[in-house]
């Protein structure tokens, strides 16, 4: 979808528009200190249970991606967790969200169930997802940060909105930057948060056009590798490839190194390093040279992402079941 359509939809639709500054001011790291002091321990224990039997499963990148998809539409309010019913199609079932990992949804459900036993009716699904996003990054050797809490779960989840607003894998750098600006994030946040692709995976269909159109900007070695793995010219929706072809199970800065070598499979990753925006190109270079800097900035950008469009105070609700409104 064009960026003008997205802006029009945000400004003039009947769906809620985001409040970027005031609502985030009531978030705090110690929000649950009195009512549910063990919240982070309980959530982390559910992650450990999920990961110990299969330490390299899709749960880790899937949970991080789930958090981004949640925050980008309606803000960080757990709206992507809602399951469609007879009355409406939710964000979760928008075509662009159908590839979200089921294991990630399952992890949120398990954490919610455990917290309902520990401190019923206290912790929101949106806070659970924000904490898990931090924990999964650290699980694969990435940075950690203090998670602000106090989000309430939203009361709107609309498939059409998600389909209109979520970035596509073939968008230009200009379109990506404007999309991030619409939710209160910067070009630096765009580049930094794209670093999450160091542990990401994508379906072959998302970069098929680059292969079929013989895009010569794609690294030859990577091109031959994915052609061997993906069933081109047929498109099998179940086949995936690592976005970081070198260290896909470690959160590091190798993704930015690979971008500068033309190894970015998605066009939206490739344009970070070779697109028209000079600042994004320079930042890719800096991160490729300095992992410590990338980790520091990633933590900061994740905190900023976690503030987007949050509901606090009397807005929204605390869901009993993350998959349905109360």
TrEMBL record:
This is Peroxidase. Disulfide bonds join 36-119, 71-76, 125-322, 204-230. One of its GO terms (molecular function) is heme binding. Removal of H(2)O(2), oxidation of toxic reductants, biosynthesis and degradation of lignin, suberization, auxin catabolism, response to environmental stresses such as wounding, pathogen attack and oxidative stress. GO terms for cellular component: extracellular region. It comes from Papaver nudicaule. Ca(2+) 2 binds at residues 198, 244, 247, 252. Residues 1-23 form the signal peptide. InterPro entries: Haem_peroxidase, Haem_peroxidase_sf, Peroxidase_pln, Peroxidases_heam-ligand_BS, Secretory_peroxidase. Keywords: Calcium, Disulfide bond, Heme, Hydrogen peroxide, Iron, Metal-binding, Oxidoreductase, Peroxidase, Secreted, Signal. The record marks 65 as: Transition state stabilizer. Its EC number is 1.11.1.7. Substrate binds at residue 167. It holds the Pfam family peroxidase. Belongs to the peroxidase family. Ascorbate peroxidase subfamily. Belongs to the peroxidase family. Classical plant (class III) peroxidase subfamily. One of its GO terms (biological process) is response to oxidative stress. It catalyses: 2 a phenolic donor + H2O2 = 2 a phenolic radical donor + 2 H2O. Heme b binds at residue 197. It is found in: Secreted. The active site is at 69 (proton acceptor). The keyword NADP does not apply. Its main location: secreted. It comes from the Eukaryota.
């Amino acid at each position: 979808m064009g960026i003008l359509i997205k802006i029009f939809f945000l400004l003039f639709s009947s769906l809620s528009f985001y409040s970027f500054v005031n609502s985030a001011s009531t978030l705090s790291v110690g929000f649950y200190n009195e009512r549910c002091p063990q919240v982070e321990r309980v959530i982390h224990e559910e992650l450990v249970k999920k990961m110990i039997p299969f330490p390299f499963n899709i749960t880790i990148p899937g949970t991080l991606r789930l958090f981004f998809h949640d925050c980008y539409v309606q803000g960080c309010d757990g709206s992507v967790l809602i399951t469609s019913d007879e009355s409406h199609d939710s964000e979760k079932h928008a075509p662009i969200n159908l590839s979200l990992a089921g294991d990630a949804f399952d992890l949120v459900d398990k954490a919610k169930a455990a917290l309902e036993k520990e401190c019923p009716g206290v912790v929101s699904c949106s806070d659970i997802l924000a904490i898990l996003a931090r924990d999964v990054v650290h699980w694969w050797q990435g940075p950690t940060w203090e998670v602000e809490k106090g989000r309430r779960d939203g009361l709107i989840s609309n498939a059409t909105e998600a389909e209109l607003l979520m970035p596509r894998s073939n968008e230009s750098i200009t379109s990506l930057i404007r999309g991030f600006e619409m939710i209160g994030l910067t070009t630096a946040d765009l580049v930094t948060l794209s670093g999450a692709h160091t542990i990401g995976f994508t379906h072959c269909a998302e970069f098929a056009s680059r292969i079929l159109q013989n895009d010569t900007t794609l690294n030859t070695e990577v091109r031959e590798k994915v052609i061997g793995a993906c069933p081109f010219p047929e498109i099998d929706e179940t086949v995936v490839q690592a976005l970081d072809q070198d260290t896909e199970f470690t959160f590091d800065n190798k993704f930015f190194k690979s971008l500068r070598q033309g190894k970015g499979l998605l066009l939206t990753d490739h344009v970070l390093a070779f697109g028209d925006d000079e600042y994004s190109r320079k930042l890719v270079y800096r991160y490729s040279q300095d992992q410590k800097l990338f980790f520091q900035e990633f933590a900061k950008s994740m905190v900023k992402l976690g503030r987007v469009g949050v509901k606090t105070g009397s807005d929204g609700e605390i869901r009993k079941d993350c998959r349905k409104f109360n």
